[in-house]
Write a structure and sequence with these properties.
Distance between the termini: 16 Å
Strand content: 15-25%
Shape: globular
Order of helices and strands: EHEHEHEHEH
Structural class: alpha/beta
Radius of gyration: 13 Å
Number of strands: 5
Strand order of the largest sheet: 2-1-3-4-5
Largest sheet: 5 strands, parallel
Length: 116
């Protein structure tokens, strides 16, 4: 059976575990990174089918990571999953290459539909 691989990039362990649990329950394979540099390594090595990316990360922020991912793979879908809910942040995320933008706290059903 085919299981798409999703890379979750967030420095909050609680969020990573919550997202990972719910995605695996839906049949996805989940890999994780807690900072931008590790995320870029995972993109190169693991070739995920979808990336869930927080903005507020140690080292490189999510906008920088998003731009770098786009240079590595312009086609992989990126969903920004972040607490930053200002319109300017949404616009910046989309301008930097994100395909979608969802703010925390999020509705689990909506989140899973966007992932699908």
């Amino acid at each position: 059976m085919y299981s798409p691989k999703i890379l979750v990039v967030d420095d909050e362990t609680y969020i990573v575990e919550l997202v990972k649990f719910n995605l695996e329950k839906e049949g996805y394979r989940v890999i994780v990174a807690f900072d931008g540099m590790h995320a870029l390594e995972m993109v190169k090595e693991e070739k995920p089918h979808l990336i869930l990316l927080d903005i507020m990360l140690p080292g490189m922020d999510g906008f920088q990571v998003c731009r770098a991912i786009r240079k590595l793979d312009p086609r992989v879908p990126i969903l920004m999953l972040t607490a930053r809910s200002e319109d300017g942040d949404r616009v910046e995320g989309l301008e930097n290459g994100a395909d979608d933008y969802l703010t925390k706290p999020f509705n689990l059903v909506e989140f899973l539909l966007r992932v699908k």
